[in-house]
Amino acid sequence: MQKILVPCDFSEQSLNAFRLATDLADQTKGEVHLLHVIEVPVMHDSLLMPTLSFEATLLKELSDNAETQFKKLTADFPTETPVLTKNVFGNTSVMILDYIIEHHIDLVVMGTKGASGLRELLIGSNAERIVRRSSCPVITVRAYEKLRGIKNIVFPNSLEEEQEDLVEHVKVLQGFLKASLHIVWINTPGNFTSDSITLIKLKDFAKKFGLKDYTLNIFNDKYEESGVINFSHTIHADMIAMGTHGRKGLNHIISGSVAEDVVNHIDCPIWTYTIKKARPVKH
User: Fold this and answer.
1) In CATH, what number is assigned to the domain containing residue 228?
2) 132 and 17 inside one domain
3) How many CA atoms lie within 13 A of 158 on its CB side?
4) pLDDT band, residue 122 (cuts 50/70/90)
5) Contact predicate 188/158, CB 8 Å
6) Who contacts 177 (Cβ-Cβ below 8 Å, separation ≥6)?
7) Is the domain of 52 the same as that of 8?
């Protein structure tokens, strides 16, 4: 976690993300990148071709205003961690994802206000898009959580194959925070398995990956996402760590993503990582 990116719109949530990011960077001797994306509306000329009609002076004014807010932010929350700031113009999620790749970011910490109702179904939040498509782990936050206070991590798991990459990242996270891991299987009516069988699978899973300082749990709920949220509340979790498959387009609307749903509906920090698909072996 040497390079930590904080997408910043200067909201309370993004300020909380910045504070957590600097706490992390202080521990890893890393650096924090503050990225502010200025979205400019697309206008249409007489030929109905999209064109940006903003004057250069207005764009400069927007950029200067962001720089002023950057200075206030770093003054209000001083840190010895190197903080790099940058303004860009464009689509928020696209610019963030491009920045992650171009600057070899190790971790994204971003604030989220969540999303609900029809807006969640059709549009979603920027945090949800980043969770779905980021090439590195993402921590989403609403309220500021002190790093030393994160001691209980919920790890919902479907016990699918090909989780080596995900589990190794979770183990690194757990070791860094010196936290306990609470592995949980959410039993739902549509995906029901008897507790005795599930417990055997959970024990095999923990043994296979050499997990330490963990508990094994089975929680019954109507839906997976509500099960994760309700179980996390039950044990007073400080963080949730989840894998996401990064589904896109129509497949995302049909199948959804439990990780993204949880991001939109819970207050504690959520660590997510896109599960990498194994490449087929050529014969």
Assistant:
1) 3.40.50.620
2) yes
3) 17
4) very low
5) no
6) 147, 150, 151, 153, 239
7) yes
Classify strands 270-274 and 50-51 as parallel, antiparallel or unpaired. unpaired
Q: What is the residue whose two structure tokens read 């600057």?
A: 103
CA 8 to CA 26: how far, in whole Å? 19
Task: Mark which of 118, 140, 162 sits at the end of a domain.
Answer: 140
In this structure, is residue 281 part of a structural domain? no
Q: Is the pLDDT of residue 48 over 60?
A: no
Alpha helices in the chain (DSSP H): 12-28, 56-76, 92-102, 117-122, 126-133, 164-177, 195-208, 224-234, 249-255, 258-265
Average pLDDT, the chain: 83
What was the pLDDT predicted at 223?
Answer: 87
Between 97-101, 133-137, 250-254, the lowest mean confidence (pLDDT) is in 250-254
Measured distance CA(85)–CA(218) in Å, rounded: 44
Quick one: which of 109, 199, 102, 212 has its CA closest to 159? 199
Determine the Cα angle at 230 with ends 18 and 113, to 5°.
30
> Could you read off the pLDDT of 153-174 as tens digits, one per residue?
999 988 877 788 899 999 999 9
Determine the Cα–Cα distance for residues 18 and 273; give it in Å rounded to an integer: 20
Single residue among 86, 114, 140 that ends a domain in this structure:
140
How many DSSP H helices and E strands does the chain contain? 10, 12
For the cut 90, the answer to whether the pLDDT of residue 232 exceeds it is: yes
Comparing CA positions, the residue from 116, 154, 144, 131 lying closest to residue 17 is: 144
- Give CA–CA dist 174/214, Å, rounded: 10
Domain residue limits at 113? 3-140
Q: Are residues 161 and 128 in the same domain?
A: no
Position 260 scores a pLDDT of 65
